[in-house]
C-alpha cells in the first residue's frame, strides 16, 4: 500500500523532495514556486507552511525534462508512488503500469483516518493554477455512487464559493446522471487510484469496469465502504456533497486527461469536509508541459499502446513506446523490430488507430535505448530519408486531439517518420554506429577502464558504454 | 583574458580545473581517442596527453576535443576562450558573439622569427607527416586523421583566403587526402578554379591555432571575406599571421604546427571510411584530392588537437557539436540578419550536428518562410543540412522540448511540412540514408543522386488557439526561485537571463 505519505517518505529518502518552509500565498506565490520547480527540473516540493488547512505538494508525479536531463528517469516518482522500485527500467514500468487490464482486489478496511472539519473551501488553502484565478482542485478523484456500485472518476475543478466547486469529469462517467447525486471529491489519493481512473476513463479504456479494482491490481489499495459509496481509504481529504449538471466549466487550463476525452461539467455543493490529521494534498502545475497531470497521461497512454500493439499480431515486436510530455503528447515514439517490408506502415497506422491524441509517429530501431530522446531525436533527422521516409497520409484522417490546428475537427493528413533501417537493404548498407563499444576493440576499452581513475579523471566511468550488446568487453574482440 | 594561443587556452582550462594532464603513456592508436570518448560520455574534463607513445617528434602531445563544452552549458569553454563573462545564458552569449563578429579586426603580419609556429622548420624529406602522433580515431577508419585544424586556401582570382576545417587523412610521409565536397567554399575554389585551369593549389593546414582562428574556420563566413578579420573581432585584437615557407599563404602564427602543401589538379586518393559527425561510420571510402607536403613547421613539443568525430550526437558533446552550438549558430543568426531576415536566432538541433537547424522568427509576410528556407539551402555548405524548423519568435530555439512541442502542436501534416519528397536538391555523401549506389563516387564529392531539403513551419497559425498558459511574471519567477534556493535547491545549472551578471 502506497499512500501519499508513503510516497513522500520514499521521495524524501531518495533526496527527491524539497521542503519549503516559507509561508506563501495560495493565489500567486505558491503556484509560481511549483511552476519554477518543474521548469528547473527540480524535485517534488512539499510546502510545509500551508496557506490554509492542508499542506500542499507539487511535482509528485512529474519528472525532469528528458531532453535536458538524460540521466534521471521522469517515470521514477510515479513508479515510487505505485510501490515499484524507483530504478525500474522503462519497459518494465510500462508493463507494470498496464495491470489495469487485470482486476485486482482492493483491501476493504473498516474506517478511514479522516475526521470531519468545520471549514469552508477557501480555508483549505488550495492553490490557484498559473498564478491567477480561484483556488483549484487538481489531481482529484470524484466518487459517484449509483445503483451499480461506485465510480471513481478523474476530476478537476475550481472553487466558486465557500461550499461550491465547478468540476469537469469524463462525460461517459456521468452520462446517466439524472438530476442530483451524492458524490465525494477525494484529494490526496494514492497514485494507483489516479492512474486507474485516468486509464479507465480516457482513450480506449482498460476493459475493467471498476476503477477501484484496477487500482487494486496496480498496488495494495485500501477502500472503505460508506454511505457515500466505496471510497479510497487513504485519501487525505474527502469532501462529501451533491453534484448535478452544470454549464460553465471550471476556470484555468484543462488537465491532460481532458484532451481527447469528452467531458462534462458539474456543479458540486460540498456539505461536509473530512481530512486526515495534518493533511497533505498533491497538486499539478497544470498548464506547464511537464506538470504532473501531463506526465500521468503520457505514461498511461504509452503503457496502453505498448500493451495493445504487443498483443495484436501474435508477436511482440515493440521494445518501447513513449509519448513525450516534452513534445506535448503530440508525437509518439515507437522502437520496434521492422518485421518485413511494409510493416512500418502497419505499425504507424496501428498507433493512429489505437490513440486519437497525436497525428505524428516516429518509428525507431530497437537499438535506440528506451526514452533516450537524444538518440531518438537524432535518428529522426539522420536516418530517415527526407524524400522517402517521411510519409504523409491522404488528407482524410480524423483530426488528432492534442494539436492546436484543425480545431474544427476537419480531416487531414497524418505523418509517420520511418527512422529504422530499411529491411530490404543489404547488410553492408547498414552503417555501424560510432560509440565506445563499437569504435574501440576490447583491449582498448579495458585500457580505459583499468586506468581511468589513475589517469586523474574524477567523474565515474560510464560502465554502460563499455560492453557490446552481445558480450562483455573481456570476451569481445580479443 | 582572451586566449592568444591553444596553449593559453589550455592553461586557462587547467586553472579552472577543466584540464586533465595525463602523464602516463597513451598511444595515438585508438587509446587517446578512447580516453577522450569516455571523458565526453562522462562529461569529465578535457584530456591532454603529455606522453604519447611512439609520438615521433620529440615531446609531441595530443589534446582530445579541447573545445568540447560541458553538457549543460556547452558554450562555456568557448566563452572563456574569448574572455566573455562567465555564466552567460544562451541568448546573451549568442548576442555577445554576434556583437563581436560585427566588429572585425584586421590581422597583422609578423616575421617568421616572431612566429611560434616556426620554432622548428622542416623541409624536404625532413618534412615527414608520419613523424607526428596523428591519432587513429575509430576502429574501421580508413587511416589516421588530422581533423581539428584550419585549412588555409587561396582564391585563384582575388586576394581572398578561405579558412575551413576540412579533414585530412594521412597516406604517407608526404601525402594526405582531403575531404573536399563541392558546394563548400574551398572545395569550389579547387574544383571549379584550380582544377579546371590545371593549376596546383597551394594550401596550408594550421594545426592548434589560437581558439578564435579555429572558431571562425567552422563558421559560415561570407565568400570573399577573410576569416582572419572575424577571428580578430571575436578576440577583440588582431590575429597575428605569418607567411608560409613555401608559398605566400599566411597562417596564424600561434599555430602549434603547420603543414604546407600543394593539391595537384586531377590527383585523387582514397578518403574514409570514417566515423562521421552524425554518429555512424560513413562509407564506403571514396576518391578525394590530396596534398603533397612541401614543408612542416612547428612549435617545440607541439600539441595536436583532435576531435573524436561521431560521438557528439544525442546528449554527448564533442568539439564539432560545441562549435555548432557556440560558433555556427551565432554566426548563422548574424548571416540571416545581414541578408534581411530579422530572425531572433538560428540554432543547431542539439542532438544532431550539421543536419537540422531551428530558426525562431516572426513571419512578416506570406511566403517568408519559403524564401528564408531556400535562401539558406542555397548558400555554401548547405549540402550537409537537410532540415530547417521554423518556430515563433517567442519560442526558445535552444530548448529542444519547446521546439518539439511546436512541431507536435503547430505543424500540420497537411500544410506545414514543405519540400519533403521534392527530390531535387544536392547532398554530400556523408549520410546514412542513401545507399552506396545512390552516393556513388563523383569526382567532386557530392552524392550521385539528389535528396530533398525540407522545412517545417512550426509557427502557430493566426487562427490557432494559444496553448501556452501565461506563466508567472519575471518578478514572481525570481521570487519563486529564491524560495527554492532558500529551501536548498541548487539552481546554478539553470540560470535565467536576469540572474546573469553580464
* Share of residues in helices of chain B: 10-25%
**Uncertain residue ranges of chain A:** none
Mean of pLDDT of chain B: 93
Just name the CATH architecture of the largest domain in chain A: Roll
Overall description:
The complex is a heterodimer of chains A (478) and B (502). With 478 residues, chain A is an alpha+beta fold. Chain A has three domains: 4-283, Electron Transport, Fmn-binding Protein, Chain A (Pnp Oxidase, Chain A); 310-429, UbiD C-terminal domain-like, CATH 3.40.1670; 436-476, no CATH class. Helices cover 23% and strands 24% of the residues of chain A. Chain A contains twelve helices and 19 strands. In chain A, the strands form four sheets. In chain A, strands 6-7-8-13-12-9 form a six-stranded antiparallel beta barrel. Chain A has a five-stranded mixed sheet with strand order 15-16-17-19-18, sandwiched between helices. In chain A, strands 1-2-3-14 form a four-stranded mixed sheet. Chain A is globular, with a radius of gyration of 24 Å. The mean pLDDT of chain A is 93. With 502 residues, chain B is α+β, with helices and mostly antiparallel strands. Chain B has twelve helices and 27 strands. Chain B has helices spanning 6-15, 31-41, 76-81, 90-101, 185-194, 211-217, 227-235, 319-338, 368-377, 400-410, 436-439, 474-486; strands at residues 19-22, 26-27, 46-49, 52-53, 61-64, 108-109, 120-123, 145-146, 149-154, 161-164, 168-170, 175-178, 201-207, 240-243, 250-252, 257-263, 269-271, 274-275, 281-282, 286-288, 290-298, 303-306, 343-348, 356-361, 387-391, 417-418, 454-457. In chain B, strands 7, 8, 9, 10, 11, 12, 13, 16 and 21 form a nine-stranded antiparallel sheet that branches. In chain B, strands 23-24-25-27-26 form a five-stranded mixed sheet, sandwiched between helices. A four-stranded mixed sheet of chain B has the order 1-3-5-22. In chain B, α6 crosses α7. The longest helix of chain B has 20 residues, at 319-338. Chain B starts with 5 loop residues before the first helix and ends in a 16-residue tail after the last helix.
